[in-house]
Amino acid sequence: MNYLPVIVLGSGGHARVLIDALLLNSVKLLGTTDVVPKNMSLLGVSYLGDDDVVERYSPSEVCLVNGVGSISQPYLREKLFKKFKNLGYKFINVIHPFAVIAADVSLGEGVQVMAGAVLQSGSVIGDNVIVNTNASVDHDCRIGQHVHLAPGVVVCGNVCVEELGHVGAGAKILQSVRVGARALVSAGTLVKSDIKDSERSILN
User: Fold this and answer.
1) How confident is the model over 33-58, as pLDDT tens digits?
2) pLDDT tens digits, residue range 113-172?
3) Cβ atoms within 10 A of the Cβ of 204, count?
4) Which ranges of the chain would DSSP assign to H, the alpha helix?
5) How far apart are the first and last CA of the chain?
6) Sheet containing 184-185: which strands, arranged edge to edge?
7) Phi-psi region of 192 (alpha: psi -120 to 50; beta: other; left: phi over 0)
8) How many CB atoms lie within 10 A of CB 56?
9) CB 82 within 8 A of CB 102
10) Are 178 and 160 in contact (CB under 8 A)?
C-alpha cells in the first residue's frame, strides 16, 4: 500500500485491531485521536489529542481511518466520517492480509475488512462499512453505507443490508433478504425474512 501518513480516529479496541492490520500492511501511522482517550498508546502508536488535532494537517498531508466501533447502530462512526469528509479529508480502506475479497467486489471509501472475512463475487460494499473478523458476505450482496457486520456474521447471496444497519455477532441472514436502513439484527439471530427500516430483529 502506498498512502499518505495516517491518523486513526479513536483509541479503543476497534482502533487497536485496525492499527494491527495497518502495521501488517506497512502503513505509516502518525497517531490516534479521541475526545476521551482510552489508551495513550496502541501497539506503539501514540495518542495525539482530541479530534481537532486532525485539522492541524492539510487533507493533502494525511489520510484518516475511522477507529470507532459500534455495538448498535453506528451513528458516531457516521458522524465522524461525514464531518471529516466535509472538511476534505480522505478515509483509506483497511484490508487485513488474511481477508479474502473477490476480484470484482466494489469497495467504497473507508471500508474495513478484518482478519478471516470473505467478500464474494458481485458484492458492493458502501462507504465506512466494517466487515468484522470472520464475517462472510456471499455473491451479489449490497451492503449500504456505515453498516457494521459484526464478527462471525454470515450473509448469504443476494442480500441487501441498507445504510446504518448493525448485524450482531454470529447472526445469519438467508438469501435474498432485505435488512432495512437503521435496522438492528441481534447477535445470533437467524434472519429468514425482510426486516423493515429501523426495526429490531427477534432472536430465532
Assistant:
1) 998 888 788 999 999 999 999 999 99
2) 999 999 999 999 999 999 999 999 999 999 999 999 999 999 999 999 999 999 999 999
3) 11
4) 13-24, 75-86
5) 42
6) 94-95, 112-113, 130-131, 148-149, 166-167, 184-185
7) alpha
8) 11
9) no
10) yes
pTM beyond cutoff 0.85? yes
**Distance between CA 15 and CA 93 in Å, rounded?**
14
Bridge partners, 166 (sequence order): 148, 184
By residue count, the chain amounts to 204
Looking at residue 177, its amino acid is V
| Residue 135 in grid coordinates | 464475517
Cβ atoms of residues 83 and 102 within 8 Å: no
- 113 - beta bridge partners? 95, 131
C-alpha cell at 9: 480516529
